[in-house]
């Protein structure tokens, strides 16, 4: 009888752990897709390792596509939400919008829509901010960077002001194209995200 109770107790513990386990959905572009890298060394893979080290059972789904824009992310988000039913959605998009010179107002609308859809599905949201090179002109660069903070404030979601903080502008941490972080930068990218992500788990 004692053995039965122990077995039943263990089974209930396992069920509780599985029930508590959630899903973190990363919706991003080439930076999160690991462009030019062995994806096993990208920041998203490092996040999976960090979760295990910290005792979290959450799984990570990387729905990032190289070259994607906020419009592309918005278009494919409903299917990703329906398929993976995430508890947390990390939005890492906008860089390609900026590099293509697309209107900041459109980026703002797309990001807000993604946040609203994610929240409506029951997920918490973390927004990762981006910046673009100064050669795009001061007015556009500032307007672009301002979008992320404005969206985060209006939608009341946590955000990382600049996902590439400590990486962008450091040639030794970038690939030869000067746009994509190298393997050496992936730990730093995770460290930029983790303090804002951990409270949402």
Q: What this model shows, in words?
A:
This is SGNH hydrolase-type esterase domain-containing protein. Residues 1-21 form the signal peptide. Keywords: Signal. It comes from Pseudomonas syringae pv. avii. It is a single chain. Helices cover 50% and strands 11% of the residues. The protein is an alpha/beta fold. It has a single domain, classed as 3-Layer(aba) Sandwich (Rossmann fold). Strands 2-1-3-4-5 form a 5-stranded parallel β-sheet, sandwiched between helices. It is globular and about 45 Å long. The chain starts with a helix and ends with a helix. Mean pLDDT is 92; it is low at 1-19.
| Major sheet attributes | 5 strands, parallel
Order of helices and strands: HEHHEHEHHEHEH
Overall number of domains: 1
CATH class equals: Alpha Beta
Rg of Cα set: 19 Å
Q: Tell me the CATH topology.
A: Rossmann fold
Task: Provide the spatial order of strands within the biggest beta sheet.
Answer: 2-1-3-4-5
- N- to C-terminal separation? 38 Å
CATH superfamily descriptor: SGNH hydrolase
**Content-based structural category:** alpha/beta
- Shape summary: globular
Domain SGNH hydrolase-type esterase: 27-186
Pfam families: Lipase_GDSL_2
Organism: Pseudomonas syringae pv. avii
Signal peptide: 1-21
């Amino acid at each position: 009888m004692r053995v039965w109770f122990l077995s039943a107790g263990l089974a209930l513990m396992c069920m509780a752990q599985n029930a508590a386990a959630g899903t973190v959905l990363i919706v991003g572009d080439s930076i999160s897709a690991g462009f030019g890298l062995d994806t096993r060394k990208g920041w998203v893979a490092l996040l999976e390792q960090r979760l295990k080290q910290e005792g979290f059972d959450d799984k990570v789904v990387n729905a990032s596509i190289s070259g994607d824009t906020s419009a592309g992310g918005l278009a494919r988000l409903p299917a990703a939400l329906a398929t993976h039913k995430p508890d947390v959605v990390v939005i890492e998009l906008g860089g390609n919008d900026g590099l293509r010179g697309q209107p900041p107002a459109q980026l703002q609308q797309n990001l807000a829509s993604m946040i609203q859809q994610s929240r409506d599905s029951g997920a918490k949201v973390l927004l990762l901010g981006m910046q673009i090179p100064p050669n795009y002109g001061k007015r556009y660069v500032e307007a672009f960077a301002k979008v992320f903070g404005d969206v985060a404030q209006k939608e009341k979601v946590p955000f990382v002001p600049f996902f590439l903080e400590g990486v962008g502008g450091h040639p030794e941490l970038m690939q030869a194209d000067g746009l994509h972080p190298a393997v050496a930068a992936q730990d730093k990218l995770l460290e930029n995200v983790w303090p804002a992500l951990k409270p949402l788990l």
